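ok trying again, last paste got cut off:
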Amino acid sequence: MTIRNLCFGVIMACSGILSLQAQTSQCPIIPRPQEVRYAQGAFQLSDATCYRYSGGQEAREAAEFFVGKLQKDMRISLRKGKSKTSEILFCIDKTIEGDEAYRLDISDLRVEVRAKTGAGLYYAAQSLLQLLPAEALGNPASASAFSIPCQHIIDAPRFAYRGVMLDPCRHFLSVEDVKAQIERLATYKINHLHWHLTDDQGWRVEIKKYPLLTEVGAWRTEGDGSRYGGYYTQDDIREVVNFARRHHVEIVPELEMPGHEMAAIAAYPYLSCKGEETTPRIIWGVEDVVLCPGRETTFTFLKDVIDEMLPLFPGTLFHIGGDESPRGEWATCDSCQARKQALGYERESQLQSYVIERIGSYLAQHGRRLVGWDEILEGGGLDTSAIVMSWRGEAGGITAARMNHHVLMTPSSHGMYFDQFQSNPSVEPMAIGGYSTLKKVYSYDPVPAELKENGRAHYVMGVQANCWSEYMLNVGTLEYRLYPRALALAEVAWTQPENKDYADFERRVDNEGARRLHYMGAAQHIPPVEQEGACLDHVVFTDSAIVRLTTVRPERIVYTLNGQTPTAASVTYTEPLVITKTTDVKCAAILPCGLMSPVRTIHYEKQSLSETARTGKLRPGLMLKKWEGFYASPFRLEANKCSEVKHVDRIEALRLQNKRNNAMRGLADYAAEVSGYVSIPTDGVYEFATNNVLLWIDGTLVIDNSQLTTPRHYINKGTRALKSGLHEIKVVFLGGIYNGWPSYWDDAAVKMRPFTAEGTNNWQ
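nice, full thing came through this time. structure:
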């Protein structure tokens, strides 16, 4: 399925004057404002409406942004000037407290937008736009006027920092892709984009003094021999930064140090302790080769890079990474040990702090403030001006706040890593692991109870979600992971806890929120249909099967049993189905607004018990065939001559046939097949799972993982009805690096268990 098309569904057309909603307390705005008071009547917005602004350039920019959006998205053209019957006024009002706070007064004849700053006016404009029907974005000719209930909104953010991190190092994002996310995130008052620009797998920012950083470091040769990469020119970066400024988003660049710098070291090997020539890392995980803190050339390099980056990023925050930096090479490096001795250090971790301290001081001299992942605390001696980004749970943030550091909370354990699954992994695109649902994100409070109790809550300056891109191969997958969880993040960051209500948020997301994302052209996660218990696309039964469907959050499910594609008019699932013959159950979830999830087909197959194999005299073990070389597909093996045939004692021998190293460099890739017999203890239906590419039972293909872009996790499971006794088994393994994942890292085992619809029995 095409990820970018996951969000498409059915939308009702509209015409004439559109009324936002009944005058109730059900405000559609995301994030929810701090206070909304409704009044009688409604304001009619049309081409006859005039607009004015007061307060200089900031007011003018906010007014023109609003007017431009109306013209572009809804084909409504407001006239500049006064009107006694329908006008909108944007006004800088210095009496309003809070740089991003605003007041929005809507009467039947006039809308007044007031804020202390242009940022506040911009956020008021975004709220006003959300009071207009989302369907008008998709059908601008559907109405000539819009009705907005009279109301008074008082609003201000809970946190000053409301952020999302994008990672183009693993999978590149174009300038237009980055700008699109900035514009969408700003709609929901996200005001910081953390741009992760350097890592082991790719260097993404042009540095003119060091041209090899982009000539060499921006490109990697993948496991299949293809070349992958890209980078942003300095003009590209200026374009993105200027675009973000217009949307009141600060770009926070990240220059990793001292770890995660393999791409830079590939370009300039002298930056590492050993100085050995290498290439950008082509697998995920943590690289052992890091910058050398013992040599002064390392600091010359870092300062030169920073000198070129600072003019590109005029914001106050500069991220230096500081995470996951192995120190093994430092322990045997003469330069590092000399530096350690000269400074009187006892631990290698203090050398990491030395790098952070020197760069932090250099940034301070240029009016910038250092931000780093929570590992920057480990060596001690960190200047209190440094901001600590807590990602390994909340402990780093709590410790930092105790030490008088400002903190940005982004714990992977609390839903802030959007590279995690958000529904059952069996029905989701590949992810790094973990489980972060919309509700989990929404439920997070960035201020830990301990900090509230000890009076240090004020050290938490904000919250961020991270979109690490190892398994986001394209922008469609990124958006599928990002939305609507970014909307939950926005409400966590903006709305006071006492004003949050998940049921009300879910209502807004499933209606106006989903439609608005749809019309903005963003892919989004609409809960796919799952099965309660065992979740498989192919279910075998011998007598009958019970079909129990569900979704990660309660949505209407429609289905068909006749092979036709379900629509909104199809039968609604209300109770478990009983299947007595081979049937395809086609099903989809439908949001209240009419958008539909991808259609899922679950094949229920009635089988007789497969007869046991006819065997002669058997010897213990399995037969293994091996083919040298890299294979993209397992279906080409038999056309090639195998290099070796031998007996092995276990299936796991599949991935142990060639020597390999931790860095997975210079591997001699191969494919292997093992065949033999498996003993089935009793008659019944059995479920199988494996990370290997193919699994055959009695000559029938039960599991086919060949279509997975990355061979990770037990996703494609299979079932088979088997009589007790011996059955033929054949397993195929492809050794290589596929989209950054070495299949050698996988467990090559085949797991088996008696199948139950509940999926509660243990694997064998």
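cool. The chain is about 20% helix and 25% strand. The CA atoms of residues 407 and 460 lie 5 Å apart.
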